[in-house]
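Quick one: C-alpha coordinates for this chain, please?
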Amino acid sequence: MENVNIHKTAIIQAGAKLSPGVSVGPYSIIEGNVTLGDNVRVGSHCMITGQTTIGKNCKIYTGAVVGSAPQDIKYSADDNVFLNIGENNIIREYVTINPGTAEGGGKTTIGDNNLFMAYCHIAHDCIIGNNCVMANAATLGGHVTLEDNAVVGGLSAVHQFTRLGRLSIVGGCSKVVQDVPPFSMCDGHPAQVVQINSIGLKRAQLSSKAIRTLKQAMKILFKEGLSKKSALEKISSKLDFSEELEHFIFFCKTSQRGLCS
Protein backbone atom coordinates (compact mmCIF):
# COMPACT_ATOMS: atom_id res chain seq x y z
CA MET A 1 0.00 0.00 0.00
CA GLU A 2 2.50 2.58 -1.21
CA ASN A 3 1.59 6.25 -1.58
CA VAL A 4 -1.58 5.97 0.48
CA ASN A 5 -2.72 8.14 3.38
CA ILE A 6 -4.32 6.11 6.16
CA HIS A 7 -5.37 7.77 9.41
CA LYS A 8 -3.90 6.04 12.45
CA THR A 9 -7.37 5.17 13.78
CA ALA A 10 -8.57 3.58 10.51
CA ILE A 11 -8.67 -0.21 10.16
CA ILE A 12 -7.47 -1.78 6.92
CA GLN A 13 -7.97 -5.53 6.96
CA ALA A 14 -5.51 -7.94 5.39
CA GLY A 15 -6.35 -8.58 1.75
CA ALA A 16 -7.75 -5.13 0.99
CA LYS A 17 -6.28 -3.62 -2.17
CA LEU A 18 -5.57 0.10 -2.01
CA SER A 19 -4.22 1.80 -5.13
CA PRO A 20 -1.86 4.79 -5.15
CA GLY A 21 -3.32 8.04 -3.89
CA VAL A 22 -6.01 6.45 -1.70
CA SER A 23 -6.80 8.22 1.56
CA VAL A 24 -8.84 6.80 4.46
CA GLY A 25 -10.12 9.04 7.25
CA PRO A 26 -10.45 8.56 11.00
CA TYR A 27 -12.23 5.46 12.32
CA SER A 28 -13.12 4.11 8.89
CA ILE A 29 -12.96 0.38 8.17
CA ILE A 30 -11.88 -1.18 4.87
CA GLU A 31 -12.52 -4.93 4.91
CA GLY A 32 -10.40 -7.60 3.24
CA ASN A 33 -12.28 -8.16 -0.03
CA VAL A 34 -12.42 -4.48 -0.97
CA THR A 35 -10.52 -2.91 -3.87
CA LEU A 36 -10.10 0.88 -4.02
CA GLY A 37 -8.86 2.49 -7.24
CA ASP A 38 -6.43 5.35 -7.66
CA ASN A 39 -7.10 8.46 -5.59
CA VAL A 40 -10.25 7.19 -3.88
CA ARG A 41 -10.95 9.30 -0.82
CA VAL A 42 -12.79 7.74 2.11
CA GLY A 43 -13.94 10.11 4.86
CA SER A 44 -14.32 9.43 8.56
CA HIS A 45 -16.45 6.70 10.15
CA CYS A 46 -17.10 4.93 6.83
CA MET A 47 -17.52 1.19 6.34
CA ILE A 48 -16.44 -0.38 3.04
CA THR A 49 -17.21 -4.09 3.14
CA GLY A 50 -18.11 -7.13 1.05
CA GLN A 51 -16.70 -7.98 -2.37
CA THR A 52 -16.66 -4.33 -3.37
CA THR A 53 -14.66 -2.64 -6.10
CA ILE A 54 -14.56 1.16 -6.30
CA GLY A 55 -13.04 2.92 -9.31
CA LYS A 56 -10.59 5.77 -9.32
CA ASN A 57 -11.30 9.29 -8.07
CA CYS A 58 -14.43 8.38 -6.11
CA LYS A 59 -15.14 10.42 -2.99
CA ILE A 60 -16.94 8.80 -0.06
CA TYR A 61 -18.08 11.05 2.76
CA THR A 62 -18.64 10.62 6.49
CA GLY A 63 -20.66 7.66 7.68
CA ALA A 64 -21.29 5.99 4.33
CA VAL A 65 -21.76 2.20 4.42
CA VAL A 66 -20.80 0.66 1.09
CA GLY A 67 -21.09 -3.05 0.31
CA SER A 68 -23.02 -4.21 3.38
CA ALA A 69 -25.28 -7.26 3.14
CA PRO A 70 -28.48 -6.93 1.07
CA GLN A 71 -31.65 -6.25 3.03
CA ASP A 72 -33.31 -9.31 1.55
CA ILE A 73 -34.53 -12.23 3.68
CA LYS A 74 -33.36 -14.67 0.99
CA TYR A 75 -29.77 -13.48 1.33
CA SER A 76 -27.27 -15.85 2.92
CA ALA A 77 -23.86 -14.92 4.24
CA ASP A 78 -22.48 -17.70 2.03
CA ASP A 79 -23.75 -16.07 -1.18
CA ASN A 80 -21.03 -14.97 -3.60
CA VAL A 81 -22.23 -11.45 -4.42
CA PHE A 82 -20.57 -8.26 -5.60
CA LEU A 83 -20.75 -4.48 -5.74
CA ASN A 84 -18.95 -2.75 -8.61
CA ILE A 85 -18.70 1.04 -8.57
CA GLY A 86 -17.14 2.97 -11.45
CA GLU A 87 -15.05 6.11 -11.53
CA ASN A 88 -15.55 9.71 -10.35
CA ASN A 89 -18.60 9.01 -8.21
CA ILE A 90 -19.51 11.17 -5.22
CA ILE A 91 -21.08 9.27 -2.34
CA ARG A 92 -22.18 11.73 0.31
CA GLU A 93 -22.83 11.38 4.03
CA TYR A 94 -24.56 8.22 5.33
CA VAL A 95 -25.34 6.77 1.92
CA THR A 96 -25.91 2.99 1.97
CA ILE A 97 -25.23 0.75 -1.03
CA ASN A 98 -25.82 -3.02 -1.09
CA PRO A 99 -24.33 -5.70 -3.37
CA GLY A 100 -26.44 -8.07 -5.44
CA THR A 101 -28.21 -11.25 -4.40
CA ALA A 102 -27.70 -14.77 -5.69
CA GLU A 103 -31.21 -14.85 -7.19
CA GLY A 104 -30.81 -11.42 -8.76
CA GLY A 105 -27.62 -12.11 -10.68
CA GLY A 106 -25.21 -11.50 -7.84
CA LYS A 107 -24.15 -7.96 -8.65
CA THR A 108 -25.04 -4.32 -8.06
CA THR A 109 -23.43 -2.13 -10.73
CA ILE A 110 -22.85 1.64 -10.68
CA GLY A 111 -21.29 3.52 -13.60
CA ASP A 112 -19.27 6.73 -13.67
CA ASN A 113 -19.74 10.37 -12.65
CA ASN A 114 -22.79 9.87 -10.45
CA LEU A 115 -23.81 11.95 -7.42
CA PHE A 116 -25.56 10.30 -4.48
CA MET A 117 -26.49 12.94 -1.94
CA ALA A 118 -26.74 12.38 1.81
CA TYR A 119 -28.84 9.49 3.17
CA CYS A 120 -29.57 7.89 -0.21
CA HIS A 121 -30.07 4.13 -0.36
CA ILE A 122 -29.25 1.86 -3.31
CA ALA A 123 -30.58 -1.65 -2.73
CA HIS A 124 -29.44 -5.01 -4.05
CA ASP A 125 -29.13 -5.82 -7.75
CA CYS A 126 -29.58 -2.23 -8.92
CA ILE A 127 -28.02 -1.07 -12.18
CA ILE A 128 -27.10 2.60 -12.36
CA GLY A 129 -25.62 4.15 -15.49
CA ASN A 130 -23.51 7.28 -15.83
CA ASN A 131 -24.10 10.90 -14.80
CA CYS A 132 -27.10 10.14 -12.60
CA VAL A 133 -28.15 12.18 -9.58
CA MET A 134 -30.01 10.99 -6.51
CA ALA A 135 -30.93 13.89 -4.23
CA ASN A 136 -31.01 13.66 -0.44
CA ALA A 137 -32.74 10.60 1.03
CA ALA A 138 -33.84 9.20 -2.34
CA THR A 139 -34.30 5.43 -2.14
CA LEU A 140 -34.05 2.66 -4.73
CA GLY A 141 -35.64 -0.72 -4.06
CA GLY A 142 -34.00 -3.91 -5.31
CA HIS A 143 -33.45 -4.55 -9.03
CA VAL A 144 -34.03 -0.90 -10.02
CA THR A 145 -32.38 0.41 -13.20
CA LEU A 146 -31.36 4.03 -13.74
CA GLU A 147 -30.29 4.76 -17.28
CA ASP A 148 -27.72 7.46 -18.03
CA ASN A 149 -28.45 11.00 -16.81
CA ALA A 150 -31.52 10.04 -14.76
CA VAL A 151 -32.35 12.29 -11.79
CA VAL A 152 -34.28 11.21 -8.68
CA GLY A 153 -35.57 14.01 -6.46
CA GLY A 154 -35.08 14.15 -2.73
CA LEU A 155 -37.17 11.92 -0.45
CA SER A 156 -38.47 9.95 -3.44
CA ALA A 157 -38.88 6.17 -3.33
CA VAL A 158 -38.55 3.90 -6.36
CA HIS A 159 -40.28 0.51 -6.22
CA GLN A 160 -38.29 -2.66 -6.88
CA PHE A 161 -37.87 -3.80 -10.50
CA THR A 162 -38.72 -0.31 -11.79
CA ARG A 163 -36.71 1.41 -14.53
CA LEU A 164 -35.97 5.12 -14.96
CA GLY A 165 -35.17 5.99 -18.56
CA ARG A 166 -32.35 8.06 -19.93
CA LEU A 167 -32.52 11.79 -19.19
CA SER A 168 -35.66 11.37 -17.09
CA ILE A 169 -36.29 13.30 -13.90
CA VAL A 170 -38.47 12.40 -10.92
CA GLY A 171 -39.72 15.21 -8.70
CA GLY A 172 -39.05 15.28 -4.98
CA CYS A 173 -41.21 13.25 -2.58
CA SER A 174 -42.53 11.09 -5.41
CA LYS A 175 -43.65 7.46 -5.21
CA VAL A 176 -42.43 5.66 -8.33
CA VAL A 177 -44.15 2.31 -8.90
CA GLN A 178 -43.93 2.00 -12.70
CA ASP A 179 -41.30 2.66 -15.34
CA VAL A 180 -40.43 6.29 -16.06
CA PRO A 181 -40.06 6.81 -19.83
CA PRO A 182 -36.82 8.26 -21.17
CA PHE A 183 -36.70 12.05 -21.61
CA SER A 184 -39.74 12.62 -19.38
CA MET A 185 -40.50 14.49 -16.16
CA CYS A 186 -42.55 12.63 -13.55
CA ASP A 187 -43.97 13.74 -10.25
CA GLY A 188 -46.56 12.71 -7.71
CA HIS A 189 -47.83 9.99 -5.42
CA PRO A 190 -47.88 7.76 -7.43
CA ALA A 191 -45.64 9.47 -9.97
CA GLN A 192 -47.19 10.43 -13.29
CA VAL A 193 -45.66 11.83 -16.47
CA VAL A 194 -45.96 15.61 -16.41
CA GLN A 195 -44.14 16.64 -19.58
CA ILE A 196 -40.97 16.17 -21.56
CA ASN A 197 -37.72 17.03 -19.75
CA SER A 198 -37.07 20.02 -21.99
CA ILE A 199 -34.33 21.61 -19.90
CA GLY A 200 -32.48 18.32 -19.50
CA LEU A 201 -32.66 17.64 -23.23
CA LYS A 202 -31.32 21.10 -24.08
CA ARG A 203 -28.48 20.66 -21.61
CA ALA A 204 -27.71 17.34 -23.29
CA GLN A 205 -27.51 19.30 -26.57
CA LEU A 206 -30.26 17.43 -28.38
CA SER A 207 -31.35 19.20 -31.53
CA SER A 208 -34.55 21.20 -31.61
CA LYS A 209 -35.91 18.73 -34.16
CA ALA A 210 -35.21 15.75 -31.89
CA ILE A 211 -36.90 17.49 -28.96
CA ARG A 212 -39.99 18.30 -31.05
CA THR A 213 -40.19 14.69 -32.20
CA LEU A 214 -40.02 13.39 -28.63
CA LYS A 215 -42.75 15.83 -27.60
CA GLN A 216 -44.94 14.48 -30.39
CA ALA A 217 -44.19 10.90 -29.33
CA MET A 218 -45.24 11.57 -25.74
CA LYS A 219 -48.40 13.28 -26.91
CA ILE A 220 -49.33 10.25 -28.99
CA LEU A 221 -48.51 7.84 -26.18
CA PHE A 222 -50.22 9.67 -23.32
CA LYS A 223 -52.83 12.01 -24.79
CA GLU A 224 -54.56 10.24 -27.67
CA GLY A 225 -56.22 7.43 -25.76
CA LEU A 226 -54.53 4.67 -27.74
CA SER A 227 -53.29 1.37 -26.37
CA LYS A 228 -49.57 1.26 -25.81
CA LYS A 229 -49.11 -1.07 -28.78
CA SER A 230 -51.13 1.14 -31.13
CA ALA A 231 -49.46 4.30 -29.90
CA LEU A 232 -45.97 2.91 -30.45
CA GLU A 233 -46.93 1.69 -33.92
CA LYS A 234 -48.17 5.18 -34.78
CA ILE A 235 -45.01 6.76 -33.37
CA SER A 236 -42.84 4.41 -35.43
CA SER A 237 -44.73 5.06 -38.66
CA LYS A 238 -45.51 8.76 -38.41
CA LEU A 239 -42.48 10.41 -36.78
CA ASP A 240 -39.02 11.07 -38.16
CA PHE A 241 -36.40 8.58 -37.04
CA SER A 242 -33.80 9.55 -34.47
CA GLU A 243 -31.61 7.58 -32.09
CA GLU A 244 -33.51 9.11 -29.16
CA LEU A 245 -36.89 8.16 -30.60
CA GLU A 246 -35.68 4.61 -31.25
CA HIS A 247 -34.56 4.34 -27.62
CA PHE A 248 -37.89 5.75 -26.40
CA ILE A 249 -39.84 3.17 -28.40
CA PHE A 250 -37.62 0.28 -27.28
CA PHE A 251 -37.88 1.28 -23.62
CA CYS A 252 -41.67 1.49 -23.77
CA LYS A 253 -42.01 -1.81 -25.64
CA THR A 254 -39.86 -3.67 -23.11
CA SER A 255 -41.54 -2.30 -19.98
CA GLN A 256 -42.53 -5.08 -17.61
CA ARG A 257 -44.18 -2.98 -14.87
CA GLY A 258 -46.01 -0.65 -17.21
CA LEU A 259 -45.33 3.05 -17.70
CA CYS A 260 -46.14 5.93 -15.37
CA SER A 261 -49.49 7.18 -16.66
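The two ends are 53 Å apart (CA to CA).
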